[in-house]
Amino acid sequence: MTALRRTATVAWAIARKDAIAEMRGKQAAVSTLTFAAVVLLLFGFALGPDPHRLADAAPGLLWLGLVFAGLFAVGRFHELETEDGALEQLTLYPVDRRSIYAGKAAIGVLAMLVLGALLVPLVAILYAVDVVHALPILALTVVLGSIGFAAVGTFYAGVTVRLRAREVMLPLLVLPIVAPLLLAAVKATTAALAGDPLGELPAWLELLAGFDVVMLIAGAGTYGFLLEE
Amino acid sequence: MKTRILGVVALLAVAAATLYGLFGVPADLNQGDAQRIMYPHVSSAWLAYLSFGVTALAGLGWLVRRDLRFDAVAVASAEIGVLFTALAIWGGMMWGRPVWGVFWQWDDPRLTTTALLLALYVGYLLLRRLSDDPKRRATRAAVVGLVAAIDIPIVHFSVIWWRSLHQPPTFLSPDKILNPSAPLQFVLALVGMLAAYTLAWTWLIIRRYQLARAELAREEAVRSGVVRSARSATTASGEGAVAQPSAPAEAAR
Fold first, then answer.
1. B143 → closest Cβ in A172, A184, A225
2. Of A150, B2, B63, B67, which has fewest CB within 10 angstroms of its CB?
3. What CATH number corresponds to the domain at position B158?
4. How far is B123 from chain A (nearest CA, A)?
5. Which chain A residue's Cα is nearest to B151?
6. Contacts of residue B154 in chain A, CB cutoff 8 Å?
7. Nearest C-alpha of chain B: how many angstroms from A131?
8. Candidate from A76-80, B126-130, B213-217 with smallest mean pLDDT
9. Are B85 and B122 in contact (CB under 8 A)?
10. Using the beta-carbon criterion (under 8 Å), do A214 and B150 form an inter-chain contact?
11. Interface contact flag, A225 B142, Cβ < 8 Å
12. What is the pTM of this model?
């Protein structure tokens, strides 16, 4: 119990440190949010002015926007550590490596939730989708999707942080891995918006939750090896 | 020498299985000659999955034992796995065009999974090329190979929940084993092709493993200054040579 509490304390400290750094800097946060909004705008241009077509595609576009902007977010929290040898300092702390992963994943989830809080209303406005009636389920889907994405993204940010071409390698490695997450999240969102006529919503949410658990365990189990380098 | 014999045997086996698949077996009643693509297609797909399983296990071996020979197995298996994945997708598309009417069928879970498999392991190989230090490279590759291997069943499972159009497996369903509908010739052609391809795979893995060991030995030699790297050898004679890669070698002399 104490070990678990210690892990939580360390994870909280790391997540809090990153959150404070982002709040004070603001540039990265603002540019990531703006990027996400611009992506949603461009989807509108790509799919034409037909409102029905946009409304039909809305769940997929929402999640593509979240995933693309999320890549910047999870990458950012490791990039922070590359300045002034902060990563070396972090690895020298006598704490369980899993708590470092947990902290980085937690701040990643928070960033994804902020993105979701911006993108869901934006999708409702831009693509004329009524989200209000499905808001609780939508929120649950965004939470589950954010956990899974942050679990995978944080792990790969750790893999690529010291790489020369990390800007392109992070998306290249993360995107194929999160394909099942994207599929399940889009299906769940579609079902939630339509009022779940086929009763398929629980299955997709279960798949999302399962993905989250598996990837959190895999990430926590392997992330420590990356810090040994 | 033994490896060379294996190579010759594998080559002959693949040639024999191919000729039998093309001319020895009668054409399928429904699919016609297109069905013959199945023999190399199924064999390639099997080797693709086998390769990535070996890559993941070899990565685990490196993490536990810290022996770079495991990493050499991992890279050999991953590279050859990418080759057979590409072959499997190509064969599947060539078969899909006449039978399904399209090259790409989004409803098919195995095609979609295999495409993601290709993306995952091309990323794995690119990641390896970007890491210079052998141990760092081995560790990064090992964890990425493991997570990719964990992801593949989830990908497959999630895509299956879309409507499936793929040919159901002919051999592995218990009903089919009790009431064999495929004539013995078809079974023989497929099993023969599987065996021949697996022999060829074994030979490729051994050769690529030996190459990986040689590459590592050369990297070590360059680092310790015994030999100069090819790049610095060519640029040193030219104007404005960037001597950075050979800096340790120069210092050692």
1. A225
2. B2
3. 1.20.120
4. 6
5. A177
6. 180, 210-211, 214
7. 25
8. A76-80
9. no
10. yes
11. yes
12. 0.86
Long-range residue pairs from B124-130, CB within 8 A, at least 24 positions apart, any chain: B124/B55, B124/B78, B124/B148, B125/B75, B125/B78, B125/B79, B125/B82, B126/A169, B126/A172, B127/A159, B127/A160, B127/A163, B127/A169, B127/A173, B128/B75, B128/B78, B130/A163, B130/A164, B130/A165, B130/A169
Rounded to 10 deg, the angle between the B134-160 and A201-228 helix axes is: 170
Quote the number of domains for chain B.
Answer: 1
B158/A contact by beta carbon, under 8 A: yes
Range of the domain at B152: 2-252
Q: Are A103 and A219 in contact (CB under 8 A)?
A: no
Distance of CA A213 to the CA centre of its chain: 15
* Non-local CB neighbours of A50 within 8 Å, separated by 6+ positions: none
Closest chain B C-alpha to A59 CA, distance in angstroms: 17
Q: Could you tell me how far CA A204 lies from the centroid of its own chain?
A: 18
Give, in degrees to the nearest 5, the angle at Cα A93 between A91 and A94. Answer: 115
Residue position matching structure tokens 């023999």: B39
Question: What tokens appear for B145 in the block?
Answer: 């190979």
How far apart CA A137 and CA B214 sit, in angstroms, is 56
Q: What is the C-alpha to C-alpha distance for residues B72 and B59, in angstroms, rounded to an integer?
A: 10
3-state secondary structure of B198: helix
Distance separating alpha carbons of residues A3 and A95, to the nearest angstrom: 10
pLDDT digits (tens, 9 = 90+) for B107-149: 777 888 899 999 999 999 999 999 888 999 999 999 999 999 9
